[in-house]
Amino acid sequence: MSTPKTLFEKVWQQHLVVAPANEPSILYIDLHLVHEVTSPQAFDGLRMAGRKLRRPDRTVATVDHNVPTSSVQDRLHILDQISSRQIQALRQNCKDFGVELYDVQAPEQGIVHIIGPELGLTKPGMTIVCGDSHTSTHGAFGALAFGIGTSEVEHVMATQTLPQDKPKTFRISVDGALPYGVTAKDIVLHIIGQIGTAGATGYVVEYAGSTIRSLSMEGRMTICNMSIEAGARAGMIAPDQITFDYLKGRRFSPAGDAWNLAVEQWSQLVTDEGAIFDRELHIDAATLTPTVTWGTSPGMVTGIDSTVPTLDPSASEADQNNFERALEYMALEAGKPMQEIAIDRVFIGSCTNARIEDLRASASVVRGYHVATTVSAMVVPGSQSVKAQAEEEGLDIIFKTAGFDWREPGCSMCLGMNPDILAPGERCASTSNRNFEGRQGRGSRTHLVSPVMAAAAAITGHLTDVRNWKFKEAN
Ligand SMILES: CC(C)[C@H](C(=O)O)[C@@H](O)C(=O)O
Ligand code: SF4
């Protein structure tokens, strides 16, 4: 019998072109996703070298980071010069190099990590890269998916391969039923809080266990998305019936006999019994609570029913300094109950939490209520398709009636690269993935939360324990 293998090892081995000793291996890349920010120099490099794209048919581009979300009109006439130039460059490059581009008005447009899965471009067992750190999202399908730098983007464009050092493997098993009010976002925030933002550096994480198995694809994507915030090279979840059901019938999913064959092959993509990981962590789901960040890194988390932590005198000097700096930046005092933190803005969006299920969850909290008078709140669907689906279900009406701004798809307030930013000093409950200093605009203060927690905060005007929420029925 052959040695038991992990899911990662199977995908890795199936894509090895060569594996020379003492040098990085060369991996074949199945799918290359492209957006406007990290591709211009790569295309320029190809142009200067007089090269073509090796596999334009395995390359797909969209615009997400820089597009305004205020109105279709604003997207067609982008005022910001840098954004406008980057998007214009992507249009020209895709034309010159024969790449499919889902432009602002295309029904397929959206955040790159949202459209890959929803179009069925993302498939189990693939290698997927993109010049974007949150490419880890696609690992939820049992793909090996990771972010690459601009020079690597050029390498993949030219050769459809990538030199890679083999990462180590780390299995994080979460078992048991999720307590009421606890979501996939809370699981991943908890994990990052526990292992730290460098806790998975050098590893590919496989999420396993009954809790993970019970999650929808949306929830699994939320978890894999934030793997990078724990430093991981990638996050992966073995494909199963939930994965197959999600993919069936999607535009680029196999159909007919090819579907049955694909499912048969995808079903092999599980970690074999007895396979050895370099590291393992077990989490009991019963210990999880709705989790929120208080500081300026995704690892600075606490339970919503807890308080802003106090300085740990046994921590290293560097950690103590970081801690104090974070409190100062966030304008918080140690010991303050999390639920007493008032917020100015709410952002429901991003590749972490702007899929249809996320919007449904937020809407279920919002239904029948109104946004607090002190709060300005927005919902930014992750893609045109999510937006259309939400509108079909009437979720937009629930949000708009409650006083939320209902926007066009894009990265939006997840990062300050488009007009959706916080004013200096403003505090936001956000469903995104990063709360770094200045992430949502200069001087912005971010609390990372789940979609239901963001919705509850919008209504009450402060961080709120969604476990006590009184849901109102549709009338
Ligand atoms: C702009 C892009 C390169 C960046 C990333 O790599 O993640 C962005 O998507 C982010 O989330 O910070
Ligand atoms: S939504 Fe945010 S995290 Fe995701 S790709 Fe866009 S900027 Fe990056």
UniProtKB/TrEMBL annotation:
It is an enzyme of class 4 (lyase). Pathway: Amino-acid biosynthesis; L-leucine biosynthesis; L-leucine from 3-methyl-2-oxobutanoate: step 2/4. The keyword Cytoplasm does not apply. Residues 9-461 form the Aconitase/3-isopropylmalate dehydratase large subunit alpha/beta/alpha domain. SUPFAM superfamilies: Aconitase iron-sulfur domain. Its EC number is 4.2.1.33. Binds 1 [4Fe-4S] cluster per subunit. Its cofactor is [4Fe-4S] cluster. Keywords: 4Fe-4S, Amino-acid biosynthesis, Branched-chain amino acid biosynthesis, Iron, Iron-sulfur, Leucine biosynthesis, Lyase, Metal-binding. GO terms for biological process: L-leucine biosynthetic process. The keyword Acetylation does not apply. Pfam families: Aconitase. It catalyses: (2R,3S)-3-isopropylmalate = (2S)-2-isopropylmalate. InterPro entries: 3-IsopropMal_deHydase_lsu, Acnase/IPM_dHydase_lsu_aba_1/3, Acoase/IPM_deHydtase_lsu_aba, Aconitase_4Fe-4S_BS, Aconitase_4Fe-4S_dom, IPM_dehydratase_rel_enz, IPMI_cat. [4Fe-4S] cluster binds at C351, C411, C414. GO terms for molecular function: 3-isopropylmalate dehydratase activity; 4 iron, 4 sulfur cluster binding; metal ion binding. Catalyzes the isomerization between 2-isopropylmalate and 3-isopropylmalate, via the formation of 2-isopropylmaleate. Heterodimer of LeuC and LeuD. Belongs to the aconitase/IPM isomerase family. LeuC type 1 subfamily. PANTHER family: 3-ISOPROPYLMALATE DEHYDRATASE, HOMOACONITASE, MITOCHONDRIAL-RELATED. HAMAP family: LeuC_type1. This is 3-isopropylmalate dehydratase large subunit. The gene is leuC.
